[in-house]
Amino acid sequence: MSTPTVDKKPPVKPGERDGDRWNRILRDIVAGNAAVAFFSVLLAVIVGSLLIMFTDEQVRDTFGYITARPSDFLTASWDAISGAYGALFRGSVYNNQADDFATAIRPLTETLKFAGPLIAAGLGVGLAFRASMFNIGGRGQMLLAGAASGWVGYQFEWPWPIHLAVAIIAGMVAGALWGGLAGFLKARTGAHEVIVTIMLNYVGFYLVFFALATQSLLQAPNSANPKSLPMKESATLPKLLGDRYNLHLGFLLALVAVAVVWWILNRSSLGFRIRAVGENPAAARTAGIDVGRTYTIVMLIAGALVGLAGANQVLGTVTSGITTDLDAGIGFDAITVALLGRSRPVGILFAGLLFGAFKAGGFAMQASQNIPVDIVLVIQSLIVLFIAAPPLVRAIFRLPAREA
Amino acid sequence: MSEQTSTPTTAPGVSPAHEIQLRAVTVVDRKAPTMFAILTIGLALIVGFGSQEGDTSFRLAVPTDFFELPTVTVPSTATTWLLVLVCAALAAYSFFLLTRKQNTRLWLVVLFALAWMTGFLAWAGADATLPVVGLLAGSLAVAVPLVFGAMGGVLGERSGVVNIAIDGQLLFGAFAAAMIGSLTGSTWAGLGAAMVAGLLVAAVLGVFAISYMVDQVIVGVVLNVLIIGITSFMFSQVLAPNAATLNHPPRFERWAIPVLGDIPLVGPIFFRQTPIVYLLYIAVALVTWALYRTKWGLRVRAVGEHPKAADTVGIKVNRTRFRTILLGGAIAGMGGAFYTLVSVPQFNREMTGGAGYIALAAVIFGKWDPIRATLAALLFGFASNLQGVLSVIGSPVPSQFMLMLPYVVTIFAVAGLVGRSRAPAADGIPYRTDNH
C-alpha cells in the first residue's frame, strides 16, 4: 500500500543565474504540495458552494425564471453562499456581529477546542501512515480510552494534578492496547490492519456499550441510561481562559504531542525505523530492522495518541460522563486530518486547526443559516480526495507538473 | 493486503534439463477443524456453566403451509448436550480429514453451523417458544443488503480493487431509491436508480483508484464519508422538508411463489419474499457462474491475481478492472434499495449503520468466493437478528455480545489464528501501464 511519502526537493543546479532560480522557486511553489493543498481546498469549497446553492429554496425559485431575470438568480445564489461562508467564518474565527471583543473572539477559542482532539488523533493516524499502516480504528481506540479515562475520573478521589494525570495516562494506555492489538496481529499473523481496526471499532463500541449498560461496571448507579457518573473536579482538564471560554488544557496537550511526534519521527532511531519500514519493509528487514516489532510499536504509540484524544473528550470537552458517542466522529475525521497534513506533525497541526474551524463554524452555520452541518463532511472528504490525486488537481487548474 | 505472505498453491518442479516433473503440492486448511474445536468447546462451556432449566419449544409452522408441522418441544439442557456431541463428532471428522490431507467440505461447515446454532438456541431459549420461521426470515431480511454488498465486494477484489466503499454504495443506493421511487411512484424505477447510484460511487472509486492510482483504501474510506455527508445534507435540506413528495417511496409487495412458497419451513423463509430477494438469488448464482465458468470471469480473476501476465496476453487490465467494479457497484446499489423499498419505507441519515463494513467482512470471511461470502453474510445476518429475538424472549447473553460476534469472528478469520485467508494476489495494487 502506498502512503503519502516524503517528497524530495530537486537539487538546485550549481551556477544557476538568479533569474532562473526565482523562476524555479516560483515553479516549485506552484507545482509543490502546498499549491495542490491550496487548490484542493478551493475546489472542495467550490463544490460545496454549488451544493449549498442548488439546495437553497430561494435559488431554486429564481432558477425557474432565470432567462427572464438572471440577476435575481445570481443575487439569490450569492446570498446563499456568502451567508453560509460568512456564518462559517463568524462561527470559527471572529464574530464581527458581537458587542465586545471578548465575545467576538470566542469562536476562535471554540475552533482551538475542537482542534485539540483532531490534532492528537490525527497524529495517531499519521504516525501509522509513516510506517505504511492504515489506522482506521480511531473510533474504537477513542471509545476504549474515553472509558478508561472516565472510569479513573469518576471512581477515585485524588488531589488535582495527580488525578488528572493518572486519568489521562489510563486513557492513553487503553488506546495504546487497542491499537497495539492490530499492530501485533499484523506482525504475528499478517492480518491486514485495515480490516482488523475496522472490526475493532465495532468490538470496542459494543464492549463500551455493554459496560455502560451494566450496573456493576460503568453505568451510573440507579440509572437506566447507558451513561456513567460525571467526572470529579480533580480529574478535569482546567479551562485555559477562564469560565467564559470552553477552551481547555487539552489543546496544549495536543501541541505537546505534535512536538513529541515530530521528535520521534525526525530525531530518534525509532522514527528512522518507522520511516524505513514505511518506505520499504523488505529493505528494512534486510537492513536488520525488526519489521514486525516496529508495526506493533507504531500501533501502540498511534493508539496512545488517539487515546489522548479520547481522554481529552471525556475529561475536557464533555465532562458529564462517558457515553458511546464520546468520539463525536473524531476517530474518522482524524483520517482526513492526517491525509490533509500529509502525515507530518506540523502539517497535521494545521490540518487539525482547519478542520477544527470547520467543526466550530459548521454548527454556527447550521444554527444561523439553516444549512445542515453535514456540508462540512462533504467539503472535508472532497479536500482529502483531491489532495490524494494531485494529477487531477493539476489538470483542473492547469498547474505545471512536478519535475521527476 | 499486499503484505500477506501466502502459502504456495502450486510449485512448479525444477528438474534436470530434459524431463519435466511436476511436484504435487496439497494445501490443507487447518482453519475449519480448529474453528470447529474452539466452537464446540465454547458451546460445552456455555451449557456446562450456564445450566438452564426447563424445555425449549421450536415453533415451525405458519398458516400458509401445505400441512402443519408440529411445534417441537425438547428438554433444554439435554438437547444442548446432545448437539455438543454432534458438533464434537463433526469436528473429529474434520480433523480426521486433515490427517488424510483433505480439506473440510462446505457441506460439513454448513452442517456444523446448523448443529451449533440449534444447540445454542436450545440453551438460550429455555422455557420459551422460539418462532423459527420468523427468526430465519428476519435473518434473511437483515442479510439481504449484506449479500448484495458482498457480491459487489467479491467482484471488485477478484479484479484487484479493494472496495471499502461498499457502505457508500449501499447508502447512496438507499438514498436514490427513496428519492426516485417517491418521484416516479414506481418501485422498479427506484431500484434502477439505486443501481445507477451504486455505479456512480464505483465510477468515482475507479477514477481515483484506477486512473489516478490513489491508494484504494483511502479512496474507499473517504468516499464513505463523502456519501454520508452528501446524503445527510440532502436529507436535511431537501428530503425532510418535502417528505411527502421526495421521501415517501412505494414498497415492494411480497410475491409468494406458487407451490414453493407453501412448503413448510422453507417456503415462508425463502419463497414468500419481495422481488429484490429473488433478484438476490439470481445475482449470487450469476456472479458465481460468471466468475468461474465464463471467459469474462477468467479474465477478471487473471487481472486480480497477476495483472502483468494478463496484460501480456492482451487483456486490458485497467479497463477490465473498471468494468468489474462498475458492475459490482450496481449490484451493491441494489442492496441499498432494499433498505428504502422494503425494510423502512423512507430514507434516514446514515441508515445503513455501517452494513457495508460487515459486507466487507463477509467477503474476507468467505475467502473472496461468492457462495462462501453469501453464507458468511447470512451468518452475520442471523447473529444480528438473533439478538433481537433473544432479547424478546429474555436471553441469558447480553445483546452487545451477540452484536459483536460477526466482528470478532472476522478478526479471527483475517488474523489467521486458525489458518490463512488468501486474498487475490494483486488485490489493492494499482496497475501501471507504460503510458502512465
TrEMBL record, chain A:
Subcellular location: Cell membrane
Keyword Transmembrane: yes
Annotated membrane topology: Multi-pass membrane protein
Protein name, per record: ABC transporter permease
Highest taxon of source: Bacteria
GO MF terms, alphabetically ordered: transmembrane transporter activity
Keywords (A to Z) from UniProt: Cell membrane, Membrane, Transmembrane, Transmembrane helix
Any one cellular-component term (Gene Ontology): plasma membrane
Parts of the chain that traverse the membrane: 30-54, 111-129, 160-182, 194-213, 245-265, 346-365, 371-393
Family annotation (Pfam families): BPD_transp_2
Listed InterPro entries: ABC_transp_permease
From TrEMBL, chain B:
Main location (coarse class): membrane
Entry keyword Membrane: yes
Subcellular locations according to the entry: Cell membrane
GO CC annotations on file: plasma membrane
Topology with respect to the bilayer: Multi-pass membrane protein
MF terms (GO), sorted A to Z: transmembrane transporter activity
Keywords assigned by UniProt, alphabetized: Cell membrane, Membrane, Transmembrane, Transmembrane helix
InterPro entries in the record: ABC_transp_permease (IPR001851)
TM region(s), chain numbering: 32-50, 78-99, 106-126, 132-154, 161-182, 188-210, 217-240, 275-292, 325-345, 351-368, 375-395, 401-419
Annotated protein name in UniProt: ABC transporter permease
